[in-house]
Amino acid sequence: MLKTLITGITGQDGSYLAELLLKKGYEVHGVIRRSSGFNTKRIDHLYKDPHERDVNLFLHYGDMTDSTNLIRLLQEIQPDEIYNLAAQSHVKVSFETAEYTANSDALGTLRLLEAIRLLGLEKKTKFYQASTSELFGKVQEIPQKETTSFYPRSPYAAAKLYAYWITVNYREAYGIFACNGILFNHESPRRGETFVTRKITRAAGRIAVGLQKKLYLGNLDAKRDWGYAPDYVKAMWMMLQQDEPEDFVIATGETHSVREFVELAFKHVGIDIEWHGKGVDEKGIKKGTDEILVEVDPRYFRPTEVELLLGDPTKAKQKLGWEPTITFEELVKIMVESDLRLAKYELHKSNFKG
Ligand code: NDP
Ligand code: GDR
Questions:
Q1: Does residue 219 have its Cβ closer than 6 Å to ligand 2?
Q2: What is the ipTM of this complex?
Q3: Cys staple from 251: which of 64, 128, 129, 184, with CB 3.0 to 4.6 Å?
């Protein structure tokens, strides 16, 4: 039975990847962080009591900032594949926590690669690095592909740039089967609630049932190539099944603005939005009324912004046979429907409390 270690298993991608690998018959090990609250809600449905039979999912406490912990985990598990998904992954937050972001996202990747070397696992353990379209940052070329030059625009992207290159370097220097998946934005009902897509679909659901009045957003003009997370974790696995380790862009090849996402999400709950004003004064108004549902709040602006991301997934299609299965319209619908159900449940709970 193949063994895999997933860092960041409690995150959006980690949870979908764990599902995929368990279905494929892997023994899955995941790193979780100690927290004073519950942080395993995305994987609770996969977890079985270790005393039961046929248990294939094992969780271990750890942290990307703790070298000895990572070394010990690799020594115990001897994984055939590592998926390094753990990261402080919020771009705006990285401006506030730049040093911590570099420690976990950049040095954390180095720590794992060094652990592979130290334990002599170079020929056994394949390594996937969660690289990002944020590496492209300030537009150099459209669409962005594997050969497009990088121009990071945040502490997060700069940390991920180091992680990208150290992964390439350890592949070239020590022959480790290591791949960078340069993944463009991918979303789902499990997306963290402070990323823009989920923030919008949560608000659409809550406004529709009367639990919220307004949605405050930052830059409405930003454009992203948004795909569906379960499609993207499949690509991660496919990369590690190749004969040779390589880096791949994973994207849909379509780009849409935050404004378009808002319009479509609200349409799904029966609300037509009309835009009035410009820049920080722009407002999204419910058609046929004077009800302001969306306002711009500059606190959500970033000191340096990535204005436009559009990926070219041709290499992934040709070499991996990977293609996205969910369109932008379908993605918005999946997320809104899920968040509308959640809002109705919240409403029911609040009525019940009286
Ligand atoms: P999430 O933010 O949903 O999940 C991040 C995961 O990393 C969580 O499990 C989190 O644990 C864990 N984590 C954070 N810091 C540490 C640390 N210091 N030590 C151990 N674990 C830590 O991210 P996604 O699932 O969306 O993304 C997965 C990876 O892919 C990330 O590396 C992200 O940067 C990258 N990426 C994401 C894209 C996207 O659009 N989603 C696109 C391209 C790249 P906890 O639950 O305890 O917070
Ligand atoms: P991003 O995702 O920065 O692309 O990083 P996010 O959803 O945070 O922002 C996308 C764009 O929307 C604009 N925006 C807002 N963003 C947030 N979070 N909140 C707002 O209120 C808001 N209003 C407008 C942002 O300015 C930005 O332009 C995600 C993360 O998953 C990274 O880890 C990953 O590497 C990249 O995607 C690819």
A1: yes
A2: 0.99
A3: 184
